Automatic annotation (TrEMBL):
Domain of life: Eukaryota
GO CC terms, sorted: endoplasmic reticulum lumen
Name of this protein: protein disulfide-isomerase
Keyword vocabulary terms for this entry: Chaperone, Disulfide bond, Endoplasmic reticulum, Isomerase, Redox-active center, Repeat, Signal
Subcellular location: Endoplasmic reticulum lumen
Signal peptide: 1-17
Catalytic activity of the protein: Catalyzes the rearrangement of -S-S- bonds in proteins
Keyword Disulfide bond: yes
Length: 532
Protein backbone atom coordinates (compact mmCIF):
# COMPACT_ATOMS: atom_id res chain seq x y z
CA UNK A 1 0.00 0.00 0.00
CA UNK A 2 2.85 2.35 0.84
CA UNK A 3 4.50 1.58 -2.49
CA UNK A 4 1.22 2.14 -4.31
CA UNK A 5 0.88 5.53 -2.61
CA UNK A 6 4.42 6.50 -3.53
CA UNK A 7 3.92 5.40 -7.13
CA UNK A 8 0.61 7.34 -7.34
CA UNK A 9 2.24 10.52 -6.09
CA UNK A 10 5.08 9.99 -8.53
CA UNK A 11 2.66 9.70 -11.43
CA UNK A 12 0.34 12.53 -10.35
CA UNK A 13 3.06 15.00 -9.35
CA UNK A 14 4.24 15.89 -12.89
CA UNK A 15 0.65 16.04 -14.13
CA UNK A 16 -0.38 18.48 -11.43
CA UNK A 17 2.69 20.55 -12.12
CA UNK A 18 1.93 20.61 -15.83
CA UNK A 19 -1.69 21.64 -15.13
CA UNK A 20 -0.48 24.50 -12.96
CA UNK A 21 2.00 25.48 -15.64
CA UNK A 22 -0.66 25.30 -18.36
CA UNK A 23 -2.91 27.64 -16.31
CA UNK A 24 -0.10 30.18 -16.06
CA UNK A 25 0.51 29.96 -19.81
CA UNK A 26 -3.21 30.47 -20.59
CA UNK A 27 -3.38 33.51 -18.30
CA UNK A 28 -0.23 34.95 -19.85
CA UNK A 29 -1.55 34.38 -23.37
CA UNK A 30 -4.88 36.02 -22.44
CA UNK A 31 -3.04 39.04 -21.03
CA UNK A 32 -0.89 39.32 -24.18
CA UNK A 33 -4.02 39.05 -26.35
CA UNK A 34 -5.73 41.86 -24.39
CA UNK A 35 -2.61 44.02 -24.71
CA UNK A 36 -2.45 43.30 -28.45
CA UNK A 37 -6.10 44.35 -28.78
CA UNK A 38 -5.41 47.64 -27.03
CA UNK A 39 -2.28 48.28 -29.05
CA UNK A 40 -3.99 47.31 -32.32
CA UNK A 41 -5.46 49.95 -34.60
CA UNK A 42 -8.49 47.74 -35.24
CA UNK A 43 -11.74 49.69 -34.83
CA UNK A 44 -14.52 47.92 -32.99
CA UNK A 45 -18.13 49.07 -32.74
CA UNK A 46 -20.69 49.10 -29.96
CA UNK A 47 -24.24 49.70 -31.20
CA UNK A 48 -22.81 51.28 -34.39
CA UNK A 49 -20.62 53.68 -32.42
CA UNK A 50 -16.89 53.41 -33.12
CA UNK A 51 -14.91 52.60 -29.96
CA UNK A 52 -11.79 54.71 -30.18
CA UNK A 53 -8.50 54.87 -28.29
CA UNK A 54 -5.06 56.35 -28.88
CA UNK A 55 -3.94 53.43 -31.09
CA UNK A 56 -6.86 53.45 -33.55
CA UNK A 57 -7.79 57.13 -33.48
CA UNK A 58 -5.61 58.10 -36.45
CA UNK A 59 -7.01 55.23 -38.50
CA UNK A 60 -10.58 56.30 -37.71
CA UNK A 61 -9.83 59.84 -38.90
CA UNK A 62 -8.30 58.56 -42.13
CA UNK A 63 -11.23 56.22 -42.89
CA UNK A 64 -14.13 58.56 -42.09
CA UNK A 65 -14.56 61.93 -43.76
CA UNK A 66 -16.87 63.23 -41.01
CA UNK A 67 -16.39 61.80 -37.55
CA UNK A 68 -18.20 63.10 -34.48
CA UNK A 69 -16.46 61.91 -31.30
CA UNK A 70 -17.94 61.92 -27.82
CA UNK A 71 -15.38 62.19 -25.03
CA UNK A 72 -17.10 60.70 -21.97
CA UNK A 73 -16.56 59.38 -18.47
CA UNK A 74 -18.25 56.10 -17.41
CA UNK A 75 -19.45 57.67 -14.14
CA UNK A 76 -20.85 60.85 -15.75
CA UNK A 77 -24.63 61.13 -15.37
CA UNK A 78 -24.99 63.45 -18.38
CA UNK A 79 -23.05 60.93 -20.51
CA UNK A 80 -25.31 58.11 -19.39
CA UNK A 81 -28.34 60.22 -20.23
CA UNK A 82 -26.98 61.00 -23.72
CA UNK A 83 -25.95 57.39 -24.51
CA UNK A 84 -29.29 56.04 -25.90
CA UNK A 85 -29.83 59.06 -28.17
CA UNK A 86 -26.20 58.91 -29.33
CA UNK A 87 -26.44 55.23 -30.31
CA UNK A 88 -29.75 55.80 -32.13
CA UNK A 89 -28.17 58.67 -34.06
CA UNK A 90 -25.16 56.49 -34.93
CA UNK A 91 -27.46 53.75 -36.21
CA UNK A 92 -29.56 56.14 -38.28
CA UNK A 93 -26.50 57.70 -39.94
CA UNK A 94 -24.94 54.30 -40.65
CA UNK A 95 -28.14 52.88 -42.11
CA UNK A 96 -28.49 55.77 -44.56
CA UNK A 97 -24.89 55.19 -45.72
CA UNK A 98 -23.94 58.70 -44.70
CA UNK A 99 -20.38 60.00 -44.86
CA UNK A 100 -20.85 60.88 -41.20
CA UNK A 101 -20.08 58.41 -38.40
CA UNK A 102 -20.11 58.64 -34.63
CA UNK A 103 -17.38 57.49 -32.25
CA UNK A 104 -16.63 57.62 -28.56
CA UNK A 105 -13.58 57.84 -26.32
CA UNK A 106 -13.43 56.96 -22.63
CA UNK A 107 -11.51 60.09 -21.66
CA UNK A 108 -10.77 58.74 -18.17
CA UNK A 109 -8.84 55.82 -19.68
CA UNK A 110 -7.47 57.55 -22.79
CA UNK A 111 -5.82 60.45 -21.00
CA UNK A 112 -3.44 61.22 -23.87
CA UNK A 113 -6.39 61.92 -26.18
CA UNK A 114 -8.22 63.85 -23.47
CA UNK A 115 -5.19 66.08 -22.97
CA UNK A 116 -4.58 66.50 -26.69
CA UNK A 117 -8.12 67.79 -27.28
CA UNK A 118 -8.34 69.76 -24.03
CA UNK A 119 -11.31 67.89 -22.58
CA UNK A 120 -12.47 69.74 -19.47
CA UNK A 121 -16.03 68.46 -19.05
CA UNK A 122 -18.17 65.47 -19.94
CA UNK A 123 -19.62 64.80 -22.36
CA UNK A 124 -17.66 66.86 -24.90
CA UNK A 125 -18.46 66.29 -28.60
CA UNK A 126 -16.05 67.29 -31.35
CA UNK A 127 -16.32 66.94 -35.13
CA UNK A 128 -13.27 65.85 -37.13
CA UNK A 129 -13.45 66.60 -40.84
CA UNK A 130 -11.27 65.14 -43.62
CA UNK A 131 -8.81 63.64 -41.15
CA UNK A 132 -7.90 67.03 -39.68
CA UNK A 133 -6.72 66.32 -36.15
CA UNK A 134 -5.58 69.79 -35.15
CA UNK A 135 -8.79 71.83 -35.61
CA UNK A 136 -11.87 69.81 -34.62
CA UNK A 137 -15.16 71.71 -34.50
CA UNK A 138 -17.19 71.82 -31.29
CA UNK A 139 -20.65 70.29 -31.51
CA UNK A 140 -23.25 73.06 -31.35
CA UNK A 141 -26.47 71.15 -31.93
CA UNK A 142 -29.20 69.82 -29.65
CA UNK A 143 -28.25 66.82 -27.52
CA UNK A 144 -30.87 64.39 -28.83
CA UNK A 145 -31.09 61.87 -31.66
CA UNK A 146 -32.62 64.12 -34.31
CA UNK A 147 -30.48 67.07 -33.27
CA UNK A 148 -27.30 65.05 -33.79
CA UNK A 149 -28.51 63.49 -37.05
CA UNK A 150 -29.56 66.81 -38.58
CA UNK A 151 -26.37 68.54 -37.46
CA UNK A 152 -24.26 65.85 -39.11
CA UNK A 153 -26.39 65.68 -42.25
CA UNK A 154 -25.93 69.43 -42.83
CA UNK A 155 -22.18 68.89 -42.74
CA UNK A 156 -22.23 65.77 -44.89
CA UNK A 157 -24.03 67.40 -47.80
CA UNK A 158 -24.82 70.87 -49.10
CA UNK A 159 -26.26 72.91 -46.25
CA UNK A 160 -28.60 74.70 -48.69
CA UNK A 161 -30.54 73.37 -51.69
CA UNK A 162 -29.75 74.95 -55.06
CA UNK A 163 -32.93 76.30 -56.69
CA UNK A 164 -32.75 76.56 -60.48
CA UNK A 165 -36.07 78.09 -61.55
CA UNK A 166 -39.30 79.67 -60.29
CA UNK A 167 -41.19 76.38 -60.08
CA UNK A 168 -38.62 74.73 -57.80
CA UNK A 169 -38.19 77.96 -55.78
CA UNK A 170 -41.96 78.35 -55.21
CA UNK A 171 -42.33 74.70 -54.26
CA UNK A 172 -39.42 75.00 -51.85
CA UNK A 173 -40.72 78.22 -50.29
CA UNK A 174 -44.06 76.53 -49.59
CA UNK A 175 -42.65 73.20 -48.40
CA UNK A 176 -42.35 74.11 -44.70
CA UNK A 177 -43.73 76.58 -42.17
CA UNK A 178 -40.29 78.26 -42.18
CA UNK A 179 -37.97 78.40 -45.18
CA UNK A 180 -34.92 80.56 -45.85
CA UNK A 181 -33.67 81.33 -49.35
CA UNK A 182 -30.47 83.21 -50.05
CA UNK A 183 -30.41 85.08 -53.37
CA UNK A 184 -26.81 85.75 -54.47
CA UNK A 185 -25.32 87.05 -57.72
CA UNK A 186 -22.25 84.88 -57.06
CA UNK A 187 -22.65 81.62 -55.14
CA UNK A 188 -18.88 81.41 -54.72
CA UNK A 189 -18.63 84.87 -53.17
CA UNK A 190 -18.00 85.65 -49.49
CA UNK A 191 -21.63 86.48 -48.73
CA UNK A 192 -22.88 83.15 -50.11
CA UNK A 193 -20.21 81.22 -48.20
CA UNK A 194 -21.25 82.97 -44.99
CA UNK A 195 -24.84 81.99 -45.76
CA UNK A 196 -23.81 78.33 -46.13
CA UNK A 197 -22.17 78.55 -42.68
CA UNK A 198 -25.37 79.81 -41.10
CA UNK A 199 -27.36 77.08 -42.85
CA UNK A 200 -25.02 74.42 -41.47
CA UNK A 201 -25.67 75.61 -37.91
CA UNK A 202 -29.42 76.30 -38.04
CA UNK A 203 -30.50 72.72 -38.62
CA UNK A 204 -34.09 73.34 -37.53
CA UNK A 205 -34.79 75.38 -40.71
CA UNK A 206 -34.65 74.53 -44.40
CA UNK A 207 -32.25 76.63 -46.49
CA UNK A 208 -32.11 77.18 -50.23
CA UNK A 209 -29.91 79.28 -52.52
CA UNK A 210 -30.53 80.90 -55.87
CA UNK A 211 -28.47 82.89 -58.38
CA UNK A 212 -30.62 82.76 -61.53
CA UNK A 213 -31.60 86.21 -62.79
CA UNK A 214 -35.20 85.08 -63.35
CA UNK A 215 -35.51 84.28 -59.60
CA UNK A 216 -34.25 87.72 -58.59
CA UNK A 217 -36.88 89.20 -60.88
CA UNK A 218 -39.65 86.83 -59.70
CA UNK A 219 -39.16 87.87 -56.07
CA UNK A 220 -38.66 91.55 -56.79
CA UNK A 221 -34.98 91.63 -55.81
CA UNK A 222 -32.11 93.51 -57.38
CA UNK A 223 -29.22 92.72 -55.02
CA UNK A 224 -28.03 89.95 -52.71
CA UNK A 225 -30.83 89.30 -50.20
CA UNK A 226 -31.83 86.65 -47.68
CA UNK A 227 -35.57 85.98 -47.59
CA UNK A 228 -37.46 84.28 -44.77
CA UNK A 229 -40.75 82.72 -45.88
CA UNK A 230 -43.40 81.93 -43.25
CA UNK A 231 -46.86 80.43 -43.26
CA UNK A 232 -47.88 82.74 -40.41
CA UNK A 233 -47.74 86.46 -39.61
CA UNK A 234 -46.05 88.30 -42.50
CA UNK A 235 -45.43 85.95 -45.45
CA UNK A 236 -41.99 87.20 -46.52
CA UNK A 237 -39.27 89.10 -44.64
CA UNK A 238 -36.22 90.37 -46.54
CA UNK A 239 -32.73 90.92 -45.12
CA UNK A 240 -30.61 92.73 -47.74
CA UNK A 241 -26.86 92.08 -47.66
CA UNK A 242 -24.89 95.24 -46.93
CA UNK A 243 -22.48 95.65 -49.91
CA UNK A 244 -19.86 97.34 -47.69
CA UNK A 245 -20.05 95.15 -44.59
CA UNK A 246 -20.95 91.89 -46.25
CA UNK A 247 -22.93 89.19 -44.47
CA UNK A 248 -22.35 88.84 -40.73
CA UNK A 249 -23.17 85.25 -39.70
CA UNK A 250 -23.99 86.11 -36.08
CA UNK A 251 -26.30 88.95 -37.06
CA UNK A 252 -28.09 86.87 -39.71
CA UNK A 253 -28.56 84.03 -37.20
CA UNK A 254 -30.05 86.47 -34.68
CA UNK A 255 -32.40 88.00 -37.25
CA UNK A 256 -33.63 84.62 -38.43
CA UNK A 257 -34.21 83.47 -34.85
CA UNK A 258 -36.12 86.63 -34.00
CA UNK A 259 -38.31 86.66 -37.10
CA UNK A 260 -38.91 82.90 -37.17
CA UNK A 261 -40.97 83.17 -34.01
CA UNK A 262 -44.62 84.12 -34.15
CA UNK A 263 -45.54 87.58 -32.91
CA UNK A 264 -47.08 85.75 -29.96
CA UNK A 265 -45.68 82.35 -29.02
CA UNK A 266 -47.27 79.87 -26.68
CA UNK A 267 -44.84 78.41 -24.16
CA UNK A 268 -44.78 74.63 -24.56
CA UNK A 269 -42.40 71.73 -25.04
CA UNK A 270 -41.98 72.41 -28.76
CA UNK A 271 -41.32 76.15 -28.47
CA UNK A 272 -39.30 76.45 -25.24
CA UNK A 273 -35.96 75.94 -26.99
CA UNK A 274 -36.87 78.48 -29.69
CA UNK A 275 -37.92 81.02 -27.09
CA UNK A 276 -34.66 80.89 -25.17
CA UNK A 277 -32.33 80.51 -28.19
CA UNK A 278 -33.78 83.63 -29.88
CA UNK A 279 -31.76 85.81 -27.45
CA UNK A 280 -34.41 88.54 -27.36
CA UNK A 281 -33.53 90.79 -24.39
CA UNK A 282 -37.04 91.07 -22.88
CA UNK A 283 -39.93 88.63 -22.58
CA UNK A 284 -43.50 89.85 -22.04
CA UNK A 285 -45.59 87.06 -20.55
CA UNK A 286 -49.36 86.74 -20.45
CA UNK A 287 -50.37 84.15 -17.84
CA UNK A 288 -53.85 82.81 -18.43
CA UNK A 289 -56.05 79.78 -17.97
CA UNK A 290 -56.74 78.41 -21.46
CA UNK A 291 -59.89 76.67 -20.28
CA UNK A 292 -61.45 80.10 -19.69
CA UNK A 293 -62.87 81.69 -22.84
CA UNK A 294 -62.89 85.06 -21.10
CA UNK A 295 -59.17 84.86 -20.42
CA UNK A 296 -58.42 83.55 -23.93
CA UNK A 297 -59.95 86.71 -25.39
CA UNK A 298 -57.20 88.76 -23.71
CA UNK A 299 -54.77 87.47 -26.37
CA UNK A 300 -56.19 89.91 -28.94
CA UNK A 301 -54.87 93.04 -27.21
CA UNK A 302 -51.66 91.22 -26.32
CA UNK A 303 -50.98 90.37 -29.97
CA UNK A 304 -51.90 93.87 -31.14
CA UNK A 305 -49.14 95.31 -28.94
CA UNK A 306 -46.50 92.81 -30.07
CA UNK A 307 -45.63 94.21 -33.51
CA UNK A 308 -44.27 97.45 -31.99
CA UNK A 309 -41.49 95.60 -30.15
CA UNK A 310 -40.35 92.93 -32.62
CA UNK A 311 -36.74 91.95 -31.80
CA UNK A 312 -36.73 93.87 -28.51
CA UNK A 313 -39.54 92.11 -26.63
CA UNK A 314 -40.78 88.56 -27.17
CA UNK A 315 -44.48 88.05 -26.42
CA UNK A 316 -45.29 84.69 -24.83
CA UNK A 317 -48.56 83.15 -23.62
CA UNK A 318 -48.26 80.83 -20.62
CA UNK A 319 -51.06 78.40 -19.75
CA UNK A 320 -51.05 78.24 -15.93
CA UNK A 321 -52.74 74.82 -15.93
CA UNK A 322 -50.70 73.37 -18.78
CA UNK A 323 -47.01 73.25 -19.65
CA UNK A 324 -46.48 76.64 -18.04
CA UNK A 325 -47.46 75.40 -14.57
CA UNK A 326 -43.83 74.44 -13.89
CA UNK A 327 -42.57 78.03 -14.23
CA UNK A 328 -45.08 79.65 -11.87
CA UNK A 329 -42.85 79.22 -8.82
CA UNK A 330 -40.12 81.21 -10.58
CA UNK A 331 -42.52 84.16 -10.52
CA UNK A 332 -43.90 83.45 -7.05
CA UNK A 333 -47.31 82.75 -8.57
CA UNK A 334 -50.11 80.19 -8.45
CA UNK A 335 -52.76 79.40 -11.10
CA UNK A 336 -55.20 81.59 -9.15
CA UNK A 337 -53.13 84.68 -10.08
CA UNK A 338 -54.15 84.38 -13.75
CA UNK A 339 -54.76 86.41 -15.78
CA UNK A 340 -51.72 88.59 -15.17
CA UNK A 341 -48.79 90.10 -17.04
CA UNK A 342 -45.05 90.07 -16.30
CA UNK A 343 -42.10 91.46 -18.22
CA UNK A 344 -38.71 89.78 -17.70
CA UNK A 345 -35.36 91.37 -18.44
CA UNK A 346 -33.39 88.32 -19.58
CA UNK A 347 -29.87 89.52 -18.76
CA UNK A 348 -30.57 89.48 -15.03
CA UNK A 349 -34.04 87.91 -14.73
CA UNK A 350 -35.54 91.05 -13.22
CA UNK A 351 -39.33 90.82 -13.29
CA UNK A 352 -41.74 93.73 -13.75
CA UNK A 353 -45.42 93.49 -12.87
CA UNK A 354 -48.11 95.44 -14.66
CA UNK A 355 -50.15 96.78 -11.77
CA UNK A 356 -53.25 97.95 -13.63
CA UNK A 357 -56.10 95.65 -14.54
CA UNK A 358 -56.34 96.70 -18.19
CA UNK A 359 -55.13 94.25 -20.83
CA UNK A 360 -55.64 96.60 -23.78
CA UNK A 361 -52.90 96.92 -26.40
CA UNK A 362 -52.45 100.60 -25.46
CA UNK A 363 -51.95 99.81 -21.77
CA UNK A 364 -49.52 97.00 -22.59
CA UNK A 365 -47.47 99.18 -24.94
CA UNK A 366 -47.33 101.99 -22.38
CA UNK A 367 -46.18 99.61 -19.64
CA UNK A 368 -43.47 98.01 -21.78
CA UNK A 369 -42.09 101.34 -22.93
CA UNK A 370 -41.96 102.56 -19.33
CA UNK A 371 -39.90 99.50 -18.35
CA UNK A 372 -37.55 99.96 -21.31
CA UNK A 373 -37.11 103.61 -20.32
CA UNK A 374 -36.18 102.62 -16.77
CA UNK A 375 -39.26 104.20 -15.20
CA UNK A 376 -40.59 101.04 -13.52
CA UNK A 377 -39.03 99.31 -10.50
CA UNK A 378 -38.66 95.51 -10.63
CA UNK A 379 -41.11 93.32 -8.78
CA UNK A 380 -39.00 91.42 -6.23
CA UNK A 381 -40.04 88.14 -4.64
CA UNK A 382 -39.86 87.83 -0.88
CA UNK A 383 -41.01 85.11 1.46
CA UNK A 384 -42.36 86.06 4.87
CA UNK A 385 -39.69 86.00 7.59
CA UNK A 386 -40.04 83.06 10.02
CA UNK A 387 -40.94 84.08 13.56
CA UNK A 388 -37.66 82.67 14.90
CA UNK A 389 -35.50 83.88 11.99
CA UNK A 390 -32.88 85.42 14.32
CA UNK A 391 -33.14 82.92 17.20
CA UNK A 392 -31.00 80.18 15.62
CA UNK A 393 -27.19 80.20 15.12
CA UNK A 394 -27.77 80.59 11.35
CA UNK A 395 -30.06 83.57 10.75
CA UNK A 396 -32.77 83.05 8.11
CA UNK A 397 -33.02 86.03 5.75
CA UNK A 398 -35.74 86.89 3.23
CA UNK A 399 -36.00 89.68 0.71
CA UNK A 400 -37.79 91.95 3.18
CA UNK A 401 -35.15 91.59 5.93
CA UNK A 402 -31.97 91.25 3.90
CA UNK A 403 -31.12 94.96 3.70
CA UNK A 404 -31.31 95.65 7.43
CA UNK A 405 -29.16 92.61 8.32
CA UNK A 406 -26.55 92.42 5.54
CA UNK A 407 -25.80 96.14 5.55
CA UNK A 408 -25.77 96.64 9.32
CA UNK A 409 -22.62 98.77 9.67
CA UNK A 410 -21.83 97.22 13.08
CA UNK A 411 -21.78 93.62 11.85
CA UNK A 412 -19.74 91.41 9.52
CA UNK A 413 -22.37 89.26 7.81
CA UNK A 414 -21.59 86.03 5.95
CA UNK A 415 -24.54 84.90 3.80
CA UNK A 416 -25.19 81.63 1.97
CA UNK A 417 -27.58 81.97 -0.99
CA UNK A 418 -29.01 78.53 -1.72
CA UNK A 419 -31.72 76.56 -3.52
CA UNK A 420 -33.65 73.87 -1.62
CA UNK A 421 -33.17 71.36 -4.44
CA UNK A 422 -29.42 71.98 -4.91
CA UNK A 423 -27.31 68.93 -4.00
CA UNK A 424 -24.19 71.05 -3.48
CA UNK A 425 -26.10 73.21 -0.99
CA UNK A 426 -27.32 70.12 0.83
CA UNK A 427 -23.79 68.74 1.03
CA UNK A 428 -22.51 72.03 2.48
CA UNK A 429 -25.35 72.46 4.99
CA UNK A 430 -23.68 70.66 7.95
CA UNK A 431 -20.54 72.79 7.62
CA UNK A 432 -22.64 75.98 7.48
CA UNK A 433 -24.64 74.93 10.57
CA UNK A 434 -21.40 74.18 12.42
CA UNK A 435 -20.04 77.58 11.40
CA UNK A 436 -23.19 79.22 12.77
CA UNK A 437 -22.77 77.35 16.04
CA UNK A 438 -19.14 78.43 16.29
CA UNK A 439 -19.96 82.15 15.89
CA UNK A 440 -23.41 82.32 17.50
CA UNK A 441 -22.10 84.32 20.46
CA UNK A 442 -19.65 86.50 18.51
CA UNK A 443 -20.41 90.18 18.99
CA UNK A 444 -19.92 91.33 15.39
CA UNK A 445 -20.04 88.25 13.12
CA UNK A 446 -23.39 86.99 11.79
CA UNK A 447 -23.84 83.73 9.86
CA UNK A 448 -26.97 83.77 7.69
CA UNK A 449 -28.66 82.08 4.74
CA UNK A 450 -31.32 82.94 2.19
CA UNK A 451 -33.38 80.80 -0.19
CA UNK A 452 -32.59 82.60 -3.45
CA UNK A 453 -35.37 80.82 -5.34
CA UNK A 454 -38.02 82.45 -3.15
CA UNK A 455 -36.34 85.81 -2.52
CA UNK A 456 -34.86 88.41 -4.88
CA UNK A 457 -32.66 91.44 -4.31
CA UNK A 458 -32.60 94.56 -6.45
CA UNK A 459 -28.82 95.01 -6.70
CA UNK A 460 -27.51 91.50 -6.22
CA UNK A 461 -28.02 88.77 -8.83
CA UNK A 462 -27.47 85.16 -7.83
CA UNK A 463 -26.58 82.95 -10.78
CA UNK A 464 -25.39 79.71 -9.18
CA UNK A 465 -25.89 77.68 -6.02
CA UNK A 466 -24.56 77.89 -3.45
CA UNK A 467 -23.26 81.47 -3.68
CA UNK A 468 -21.48 82.92 -0.63
CA UNK A 469 -21.17 86.66 -0.02
CA UNK A 470 -19.51 88.46 2.88
CA UNK A 471 -20.73 91.92 3.86
CA UNK A 472 -18.07 93.65 6.02
CA UNK A 473 -18.99 96.08 8.76
CA UNK A 474 -18.63 99.79 8.16
CA UNK A 475 -19.93 102.27 5.59
CA UNK A 476 -19.76 101.80 1.83
CA UNK A 477 -22.09 98.80 1.30
CA UNK A 478 -19.22 96.53 0.34
CA UNK A 479 -19.62 92.94 -0.76
CA UNK A 480 -16.98 90.19 -0.99
CA UNK A 481 -17.67 87.02 -2.95
CA UNK A 482 -16.24 83.92 -1.28
CA UNK A 483 -14.82 81.38 -3.77
CA UNK A 484 -12.60 79.12 -1.70
CA UNK A 485 -13.01 75.71 0.01
CA UNK A 486 -16.38 75.02 1.61
CA UNK A 487 -15.31 73.68 5.00
CA UNK A 488 -15.60 75.09 8.50
CA UNK A 489 -11.88 75.71 9.04
CA UNK A 490 -11.45 77.66 5.80
CA UNK A 491 -14.63 79.62 6.50
CA UNK A 492 -13.28 80.49 9.96
CA UNK A 493 -9.91 81.55 8.60
CA UNK A 494 -11.73 83.78 6.10
CA UNK A 495 -13.80 85.41 8.85
CA UNK A 496 -10.91 85.83 11.29
CA UNK A 497 -8.89 87.56 8.55
CA UNK A 498 -11.59 90.13 7.95
CA UNK A 499 -13.07 88.58 4.82
CA UNK A 500 -9.96 87.49 2.95
CA UNK A 501 -7.71 84.46 2.67
CA UNK A 502 -3.90 84.44 2.31
CA UNK A 503 -4.22 82.68 -1.05
CA UNK A 504 -6.46 83.98 -3.85
CA UNK A 505 -8.19 86.78 -1.95
CA UNK A 506 -11.70 87.37 -3.27
CA UNK A 507 -12.47 90.44 -5.33
CA UNK A 508 -14.21 93.29 -3.50
CA UNK A 509 -16.83 95.26 -5.40
CA UNK A 510 -19.51 97.80 -4.69
CA UNK A 511 -22.91 96.11 -4.53
CA UNK A 512 -24.32 98.47 -7.13
CA UNK A 513 -21.62 97.36 -9.57
CA UNK A 514 -22.31 93.64 -9.15
CA UNK A 515 -22.81 92.51 -12.74
CA UNK A 516 -25.69 90.21 -13.69
CA UNK A 517 -25.13 86.93 -15.59
CA UNK A 518 -25.18 87.19 -19.36
CA UNK A 519 -27.81 85.64 -21.57
CA UNK A 520 -29.02 82.70 -19.50
CA UNK A 521 -32.78 82.39 -19.85
CA UNK A 522 -32.84 79.60 -17.28
CA UNK A 523 -30.17 80.60 -14.78
CA UNK A 524 -29.17 78.41 -11.89
CA UNK A 525 -29.56 75.24 -13.93
CA UNK A 526 -26.62 73.03 -14.94
CA UNK A 527 -24.92 73.34 -18.29
CA UNK A 528 -25.46 69.70 -19.13
CA UNK A 529 -21.87 68.66 -18.54
CA UNK A 530 -19.91 67.28 -15.63
CA UNK A 531 -16.48 68.74 -14.82
CA UNK A 532 -13.41 66.56 -15.32
Amino acid sequence: LVWLLVLSLAWLGPALGDEEKDGEVVAEEKKEKEEDEVLSDEIKEEDNVLVLHEHNFARALSEHQLLLVEFYAPWCGHCQQLAPAYTRAATELKNESSLARLGKVDATAQTALANEFNITSYPTLKLFRDGNRTHPLPYTGIMDTQGIVRWMQRRAGPSATLLHDTDTANAFANSQDLVVIGFFKDLKGKAAQAFYEVAAEMVDMQFGVAEAAELFQAYGLSADTICLFKKFDERQTNFPVDPARGLDTAELTRLLRVHSLRLVTEFNNETSNQIFSAKIPHHMLLFLNKSSSEQLSLQDGFKAAASNFRGEVLFVVVDVNGYGADVLSFFGMTPADAPTLRLVKMENNRKYQMEQDSFSDTAIRTFIQAVLDGKVKPHLLSAEPPEDWDKQPVKVLVGKTFEQVAFDETKNVFVKFYAPWCSHCQAMAPAWDELGERYKDHENIVIAEMDATANELENITIHGFPTLHYFPAGPGRKMVEYKSARDVETFSKFLENGGMLPVEPPVVSEVRDCLPPQGSPQPLLGEGTDPV
